[in-house]
Design a protein that fits this description.
Elements lengths: L2 H11 L15 E2 L5 E2 L3 H21 L7 H18 L1
Helix pairs in contact: 1-2, 1-3, 2-3
């Protein structure tokens, strides 16, 4: 599972994706016409901050695991959304 990509996708879309993401991902940004373009600096900073935040959270889970998978997802999303608002 790629929890950073899943949390970032959920936070950017404003919803909880009902499926998980696995493996490496490529993140692109939309242009006004719906095509794909490179991320601007703001979105790149958000992606990097969410990735750092998720890595820290997973480290915390090694000593204090979440109560359940749904609890882990909620915690991931809350931390991702806070990370985005900090950037």
């Amino acid at each position: 599972m790629n929890p950073a990509a899943w949390a970032l996708a959920c936070a950017w879309r404003g919803l909880d994706l009902p499926y998980l993401l696995y493996g490496p991902v490529i993140v692109t940004g939309p242009d006004p016409g719906g095509a794909v373009e490179t991320l601007n600096n703001s979105l790149l900073a958000q992606a990097e901050e969410v990735t750092r935040t998720v890595a820290e959270l997973r480290g915390q889970w090694s000593t204090q695991p979440p109560m359940s998978e749904p609890a882990a997802r909620l915690e991931l999303l809350a931390n991702a959304r806070r990370a985005i608002h900090r950037t």
